Amino acid sequence: MEHRDDTRRRTAGSSPSGTGTGTHDRSWQRDVRSSVRCAGALLGLLLAADGAAGSLTWWHGALWLVLALLLLLILFPARVSAGPGWLATRRLLRTRRVRTDLLVAVRPVDGVSQRLVLRDALGNRVEIDPEVLIRNPDLWYRLDEGARRSEATGTLLSGTTALHRLARRLDSETARGVFRASGLE
Q1: 87 within 8 A of 146, measured Cβ to Cβ
Q2: DSSP 82-131
Q3: Torsion angle (degrees, nearest 10) of CA 4, 6, 12, 14
Q4: pTM of the full structure
Q5: Residues of 100-137 as b/e, b for ≥16 C-beta within 10 angstroms?
Q6: Are the beta carbons of 103 and 150 closer than 8 angstroms?
Q7: DSSP assignment, residue 77?
Q8: Which comes out higher in pLDDT, residue 9 or 155?
Q9: Would you state the pLDDT for residue 35?
Q10: Per-residue model confidence as pLDDT tens digits over 15-60
Q11: Is there a contact between 127 and 89 (Cβ–Cβ < 8 Å)?
C-alpha cells in the first residue's frame, strides 16, 4: 500500500543533486538499544509481578509480550539520513524523503515532543526531532545547505524563522560544547 508521503523510486541517481555521500544519525543505534531495553524491562517486570502473584499463565505471558512489543513500536526511533539536496526518515514500515533544495514550508510543532515538519514543492512531508539535528551537525549542515538554496530561489515560503531559531540553538550548543571541552565553563 503506497502512501502519498512515501518515497518514490528513482530510476537514475541516488540523490537529487547528482552523486554525493550521505550522512545519518550517529546515535540511532544507541536509541534503538534503549528502546529494546525499555520494552524488555517492562516485559520482565510484568512477568515477575504476575509470577509472584501466582497467576502467570501462557496467555498472560502472551499478553505481556504483546504489550512489550507495542511499547517497542512506540519507542522505536526513526533513522534520519541526508545527502546533497535531500533528507529522509525511515521508520519500520516506510521511508519518507523531502528535497531540501525545494522546500516550501518548515513548521515547528510543539507538544509532548518537539517536531519539525518539512514540506517540499513535490508534496513530500517529513517530521523530524530537532534534537537529532543538534546531536548530528552533519545532518544539520545538509538541511541548512538545502534550505538556503530554497530560500535563495524563493521556494521556501514559510518557516525561515524556525530554521534561523534552530540555527541559533545549534550554535549555542556547539559553543557550550567547546567551552566544556576546553574547561572554560
Answers
A1: yes
A2: EETTEEEEE-SS-EEEEEGGGEEEEEEE-SSS-EEEEEETTS-EEEE-HH
A3: 140
A4: 0.72
A5: bbbbbbbeeeeeeeeebbbbbbeebebebbbebbbbbe
A6: yes
A7: P
A8: 155
A9: 93
A10: 444 445 678 888 888 989 999 999 999 999 999 999 999 888 899 9
A11: yes
